[in-house]
Amino acid sequence: MTQKPLDLKTPYLLFLGDAQEDGLAKTAFGIHEWCPEKCKGQMRLDGCKVDLGLEDLNPVEAKTVHNVGTLVIGVANLGGYVPDNWVAPLCGALRAGLDIAAGLHTRLNDIEFLRETAKQLGRTIYDVRQTTQELKVGNGQKRSGKRLLTVAADCAIGKKYAALAIAKEMQSRGMAADFRATGQTGILIAGGGIGIDAVVADFISGAAEMVSPENAKDHWDIIEGQGALFHPAYAGVALGLLHGSQPDALVICHDPDRSHTAFMEGFALPDMETVIRRNIEAAQLTNPHVKVAGISVNTSRMTDDDAKFYMADLSQQTKLPVCDPVRTGMNNIVDYLVHDR
Amino acid sequence: MTQKPLDLKTPYLLFLGDAQEDGLAKTAFGIHEWCPEKCKGQMRLDGCKVDLGLEDLNPVEAKTVHNVGTLVIGVANLGGYVPDNWVAPLCGALRAGLDIAAGLHTRLNDIEFLRETAKQLGRTIYDVRQTTQELKVGNGQKRSGKRLLTVAADCAIGKKYAALAIAKEMQSRGMAADFRATGQTGILIAGGGIGIDAVVADFISGAAEMVSPENAKDHWDIIEGQGALFHPAYAGVALGLLHGSQPDALVICHDPDRSHTAFMEGFALPDMETVIRRNIEAAQLTNPHVKVAGISVNTSRMTDDDAKFYMADLSQQTKLPVCDPVRTGMNNIVDYLVHDR
Fold it and tell me: A129, A204, A261: best mutation site toward chain B, by most B Cβ within 10 Å?
């Protein structure tokens, strides 16, 4: 019932390379934040300035002392390529008995020496951006279990974080819930999932159907959203994911300071009412009972008082629970889901 | 200005294999219908029962007498694979000096003997389903020139045919107009285009932007639609194509006899008003001035009188020109576009 398209061996050793700043190690920080129990140590090359506060381990120590299963690449260079000075240490990890997982633009399996070393040793290198699963086109047929998808007016606005926080809140209450990853960092955090924006266009909703397979009636899949219906480059991904996820509940992720689509020129973001209406209308194709279960906002640039006022006001306007996953946690949204159904 | 992502050498020799029925040679019939001037002959294997009415030529005759550039595979087997008995004749075509183009599921380039023969001879085998162009993500920036996209409530409902008919009507009036192909048969007809449903999901709208590049102010690109916003498998493709095409005009393709999504279970089609509203709303993201320019219907199962009545009624209800590309031609829609702008 909970078969995952990808199953990374745990626990992890997080590879930080020689990263010079925390911003380049967002993946490592994300994995450490959301699954500390899986993270047994960090592996740093000479000159690395990033520190997760984990024990520095080499692959042999990681394997023999902590039974680590996978070295996870937790850094990206600008450009996403693999620097030459990573190859020897990554081979060392394979020789020590570890698999390797990465979500880089450049596939580790495209580096012949790494690929051949892994093959000879019987290890697996997971390039998680590209799924190796055989995909099907979507069929739109109802699957049992409950599903929540995070959506938004734009990309890079907190959809992964909100989904992780909701799954965690549900799990802490003893509810049956899984975070379902659709992007590379999410996949490395979850240890499974499909990079939905890297599948062939015909298979977007089919891949989304595989990400949240049939499950027990009361089980919640909390699915990481991608793209946005209002994004001139990524709306197709967002719509296919919405249809394939057939969500019972949507959570709208919102940044009160963002007025225009990020990294694009000239696209004003729609208002909240439009974001809700358009997502609901589209989602009704595969789940006529879909509802919005709340709004997840980023109030990090507000004072406590301002945030409190802002969230209360937005909640009153929309008649929906409003949470900030960092400031308030996702209690109100999960309460709403529990009491509404 | 009219750079195409793919440029097949013309004229064509149409390969019919040993097809037993016309239905398997839809691609050949389509190419012959829409670009008879490009079709110098047909090539049939023993036992072939399909006849386009073209001269039977072997590749050497085609090359030496008619200067044919490309052998175009105009048939598909059920399953889309390449039968063993095609390989020798296809190699013969390469040796005679022809390129080969195909839109099959199985890539001809995956057949080693064909690939190597082409390589040795300096010929090109075009598997047009998969583009070889380097794609970019969409940027949403306005391009000069005018664009029309055919859309619908469902797949396989006449979007390619309508686009071809509109482009032909415009060309017959001396208007600057090109059909822009987004699927394999369309690409073989046009000699260029991108199979939009075969690109990586991140690049749908970027690929659509490449399909209809910047052009002269009064030039019309008539773009072949794909999928449908209301299709549980292919809506992502449709939305990305809609955004990347940034159409000035939409033509809605409609089959009065179809009540449910084809080849799917349990999806009733939306009414015309919803089809129009949802497509216009979505298209406004990249072109706020988008309008519906008409409805293209398939009245092939009606009598002349019934069709006339039906089309007049639909036109009155929607206040839009209604055409059947086969029965009436696209005059009214093109008139509407000419007078409206």
Answer: A204
A-chain CB neighbours of B235 within 8 Å are 205, 239-240, 243, 282, 285
CATH value at residue B18? 3.40.50.720
Same domain, A120 and A248: no
Total tally of structural domains belonging to chain B: 2
- What is the mean pLDDT of each successive set of 10 residues along chain B, which is 341 residues long? 64 96 92 95 96 97 97 85 92 97 91 96 93 91 98 95 98 97 94 93 96 97 98 97 98 96 92 98 98 97 97 98 97 94 51
pLDDT tier for residue A4 given thresholds of 50, 70 and 90 = very low
Inside any domain, residue A4: no
Residues A154, A181, single domain; the answer is yes
Q: Which CATH number is B254's domain given?
A: 3.40.50.300
Do A168 and A303 fall within a single domain?
yes
Give A-chain residues touching B278 at CB under 8 angstroms.
Answer: 281
Task: Please state the ipTM of this predicted complex.
Answer: 0.92
Neighbours of A105 (CB within 10 A): 14
Residues B94, B152, single domain; the answer is no
Contact between residue B186 and residue B1 where contact means Cβ atoms under 8 Å apart: no
Confidence at residue B5, expressed as pLDDT on a 0 to 100 scale? 56
**Tokens standing for residue A277:** 């209406």
Q: What is the DSSP letter of B55?
A: P
User: Residue B100 sits in which domain range?
Assistant: 12-127
> Of B93, B127, B161, which residue is a domain's last?
B127
Residue A103: closest CA among A193, A203, A187: A187
Contacts of B202 (CB under 8 A, 6+ apart): A197, A198, A233, A234, A237, B137
Residues of A contacting chain B (CB within 8 angstroms): 137-141, 196-202, 204-206, 229-230, 232-241, 243, 264-267, 278, 281-282, 285-286
CA–CA dist A99, A10 (Å, integer):
10
Pick A204's closest partner by Cβ from B139, B236, B282: B236
Taking Cα atoms as reference points, which of A149, A152, A159, A192 lies closest to residue A35? A192
**CB A2, CB A215: distance < 8 Å:** yes
Same-domain check for residues B165 and B64: no
- Collect all residues with Cβ–Cβ distance below 8 Å to B199 and sequence separation of at least 6: A200, A201, B131, B135, B207
Q: For residues A263 and A70, which has the higher predicted lDDT (pLDDT)?
A: A70
Residues in B touching A241 (Cβ below 8 Å):
236
A203 in any annotated domain: yes
Q: How far apart are CA B232 and CA B238, in angstroms?
A: 11
A132 located within any domain: no
| Domain end marker among A70, A97, A127 | A127
One domain for residues B249 and B285: yes
Rounded distance between C-alpha atoms, residue A4 and residue B188, angstroms: 40
| H-state helical runs in chain A | 26-34, 59-66, 84-95, 112-121, 159-172, 184-190, 204-211, 235-245, 272-283, 304-318, 331-340
Please give the DSSP secondary-structure letter assigned to residue A109. Answer: G
Structure token pair of residue A290: 């879909």
DSSP 8-state class, residue A220: E
Check whether residue A157 and residue A81 sit in a common domain.
no
Looking at the structure, tell me whether residues A99 and A167 fall in a common domain. no
